[in-house]
């Protein structure tokens, strides 16, 4: 008998999505996960219908500042979308099942395309705070050691036991993000690179950042990869972007510090740009 890993049954997830569908008139095919400090995007939706996480049965609640904790349905660029205004992280003490529960709920709501956003530290020395990195690929550090969100009995109704991840970040959507960036004059701030997911909540040591740089990582954070794996497992198309909120500290210089308020401030500075980038992207998504 295998160890028991916390999981939600198909019926649990179906019940949550039914709860939402019965109370909401939107039928989104596009889902958006808002990263630290990037939740303002959800406030720009038209015809909003919002559900605080506390009001949704079996949903976890947000505990991190910069994550408001609401599922917001509405219209963006003429299309129905659903936004997670705040995500869940493993470092908050949540199981992988809880971290990724909203992705499966979105699947049963009818979401086919997922845009995942985050704030991340720049590891690539060419990156400066305010850059926006299109995620080309990720390295899932907890997953490499076995803490994968798909660990545990596989639910075939969602997807296969051994899903491929070599094409996790859809090439066509990445091209659409580049086109959207051009439309809103952001091309000069765009990068494309590899995101490393670490468990957190401590920021990285200098040695850890040097290690990440040596293996080809461009940006580092404490989210995203679990959501993307679960989204791909159930057949969603995925695209991701990281707002580079700070430079990773690669020198032994105690005068350099990184703080979550700096991460949130970077989100405030780029809020309008991210909103126009995402609304232009949504325009370009085929439904
Ligand atoms: O990945 P998001 O949720 O955007 O937030 C990032 O910012 C927080 C650290 O400042 C961590 O949660 C990290 O993952």
UniProtKB/TrEMBL annotation:
<comment type="pathway">
    <text>Purine metabolism; purine nucleoside salvage.</text>
</comment>
<feature type="domain" description="Nucleoside phosphorylase">
    <location>
        <begin position="29"/>
        <end position="281"/>
    </location>
</feature>
<dbReference type="InterPro" id="IPR000845">
    <property type="entry name" value="Nucleoside_phosphorylase_d"/>
</dbReference>
<keyword id="KW-0660">Purine salvage</keyword>
<protein>
    <recommendedName>
        <fullName>Purine nucleoside phosphorylase</fullName>
        <ecNumber>2.4.2.1</ecNumber>
    </recommendedName>
</protein>
<dbReference type="InterPro" id="IPR035994">
    <property type="entry name" value="Nucleoside_phosphorylase_sf"/>
</dbReference>
<dbReference type="InterPro" id="IPR018099">
    <property type="entry name" value="Purine_phosphorylase-2_CS"/>
</dbReference>
<feature type="binding site">
    <location>
        <begin position="87"/>
        <end position="89"/>
    </location>
    <ligand>
        <name>phosphate</name>
    </ligand>
</feature>
<comment type="similarity">
    <text>Belongs to the PNP/MTAP phosphorylase family.</text>
</comment>
<comment type="subunit">
    <text>Homotrimer.</text>
</comment>
<dbReference type="Pfam" id="PF01048">
    <property type="entry name" value="PNP_UDP_1"/>
</dbReference>
<feature type="binding site">
    <location>
        <position position="204"/>
    </location>
    <ligand>
        <name>a purine D-ribonucleoside</name>
    </ligand>
</feature>
<dbReference type="InterPro" id="IPR011270">
    <property type="entry name" value="Pur_Nuc_Pase_Ino/Guo-sp"/>
</dbReference>
<feature type="binding site">
    <location>
        <position position="119"/>
    </location>
    <ligand>
        <name>phosphate</name>
    </ligand>
</feature>
<feature type="binding site">
    <location>
        <position position="246"/>
    </location>
    <ligand>
        <name>a purine D-ribonucleoside</name>
    </ligand>
</feature>
<dbReference type="GO" id="GO:0047975">
    <property type="term" value="F:guanosine phosphorylase activity"/>
</dbReference>
<dbReference type="GO" id="GO:0006166">
    <property type="term" value="P:purine ribonucleoside salvage"/>
</dbReference>
<dbReference type="GO" id="GO:0004731">
    <property type="term" value="F:purine-nucleoside phosphorylase activity"/>
</dbReference>
<feature type="binding site">
    <location>
        <position position="36"/>
    </location>
    <ligand>
        <name>phosphate</name>
    </ligand>
</feature>
<dbReference type="GO" id="GO:0005737">
    <property type="term" value="C:cytoplasm"/>
</dbReference>
<feature type="binding site">
    <location>
        <position position="223"/>
    </location>
    <ligand>
        <name>phosphate</name>
    </ligand>
</feature>
<comment type="function">
    <text>The purine nucleoside phosphorylases catalyze the phosphorolytic breakdown of the N-glycosidic bond in the beta-(deoxy)ribonucleoside molecules, with the formation of the corresponding free purine bases and pentose-1-phosphate.</text>
</comment>
<keyword id="KW-0328">Glycosyltransferase</keyword>
<feature type="binding site">
    <location>
        <position position="67"/>
    </location>
    <ligand>
        <name>phosphate</name>
    </ligand>
</feature>
<keyword id="KW-0808">Transferase</keyword>
<dbReference type="InterPro" id="IPR011268">
    <property type="entry name" value="Purine_phosphorylase"/>
</dbReference>
């Amino acid at each position: 008998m295998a160890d028991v890993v916390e999981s939600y049954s198909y019926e649990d997830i179906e019940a949550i999505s039914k709860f939402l569908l019965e109370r909401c008139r939107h039928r989104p095919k596009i889902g958006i996960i808002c990263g630290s400090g990037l939740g303002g995007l959800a406030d720009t939706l038209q015809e909003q219908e919002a559900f605080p996480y506390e009001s949704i049965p079996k949903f976890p609640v947000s505990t991190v500042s910069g994550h408001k904790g609401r599922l917001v349905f509405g219209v963006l660029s003429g299309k129905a979308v659903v936004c997670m205004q705040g995500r869940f992280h493993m470092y908050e003490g949540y199981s992988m099942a809880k971290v990724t529960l909203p992705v499966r709920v979105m699947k049963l709501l009818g979401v086919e395309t997922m845009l995942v956003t985050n704030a991340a530290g720049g590891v690539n020395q060419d990156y400066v705070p305010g850059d926006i990195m299109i995620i080309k690929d990720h390295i899932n550090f907890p997953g490499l050691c076995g803490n994968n969100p798909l660990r545990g009995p596989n639910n075939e109704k969602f997807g296969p036991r051994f899903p491929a991840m070599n094409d996790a970040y859809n090439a066509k959507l990445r091209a659409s993000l580049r086109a959207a960036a051009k439309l809103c004059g952001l091309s000069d701030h765009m990068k494309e690179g590899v995101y490393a997911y670490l468990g957190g909540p401590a920021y990285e040591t200098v040695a850890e950042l040097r290690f990440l740089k040596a293996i080809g990582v461009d940006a580092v954070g404490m989210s995203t990869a679990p959501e993307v794996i679960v989204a791909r497992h159930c057949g969603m198309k995925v695209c991701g972007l990281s707002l580079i909120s700070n430079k990773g500290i690669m020198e032994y210089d105690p005068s350099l510090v990184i703080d979550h308020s700096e991460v949130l401030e970077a989100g405030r500075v780029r809020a309008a740009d991210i909103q126009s980038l995402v609304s232009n992207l949504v325009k370009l998504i085929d439904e």
